[in-house]
Amino acid sequence: MKLIKSILYTSAVALLGLTACDKELDIDSLDFDVSTAKTTYKLGDTVVFKFKGNPDNITLFTGEEGHKYEYRERLRAEGKPELSFTSFRQYGTQTLPLELLVSTTFNGKVDKDVANGGWKNITDKATFSTTADNTPSGKIDLSEYVGDKPLYIAFHYKGEAGSTQRKWTIKNFEVSNKLTSGVTLTIADLSNAGFSEYSYSNPNVLWKIEASQISIQGGPATNEANDDWVVTQALYLDKVMPDSGMGLKNITTKMTEYPYVFTKPGTYKVTFIASNATADKSESVVKELEITIEP
User: PROSITE patterns under this entry (predicted)?
Assistant: First the structure.
């Protein structure tokens, strides 16, 4: 077994409320190591990590996407941000388009001033439904809007009085970031894009915001004109969630080994963090192993 790296570090933690005369609690000496029977396995094999010592806590980073130790504190990552969605246009013959707009200067308040949010019309970047349901928009490149300011995305609907107004439905809304590593991360979808609506006219017709879609139905020819907006919350196009580890044990349990099955071929840098801690001190050791999974 090739041990790539072993890092030991100790940190003293001040306990709030203790006076100088209080005696610090002793910490148990940390003794931990990890090994496997071999370094190369076939896809579907169970890799058994055997532990030496009994630290209070063990956390595992498998080295798979989303679980890499080196990215545990990463909050931003370069990539190619893209917007995609599907649309469905129904009813009527009005030719007013559903507009797709973006802004990096909008103040985030979806109110009577929403139309003055410095919007850029990018409707021509997307494909919209003419009659078919779930018409794909295509991938809309948002790279030019990456920066310190967040991006807001809006759909703007208008319907004229005197004829049947269109109904529009938007599904599968997603803003993603394709990293240079080839991994694609979701920045926002319908569940967390935080859409809010505002109507400039005819309060009886509003954007309907649901978990699986957003939609608006203008109504019959007898309805008055409509002018309605629906806008996302602030979106940070290069924002990523830090990679996470898996807690294997705490002070109440004892563990001598841990079995794991990798689901894809590749070479993985597997990292274990073992620690002992009291209210006064903590001591940790990081063990890294390289495991290769063959097809």
Answer: PROKAR_LIPOPROTEIN (PS51257)
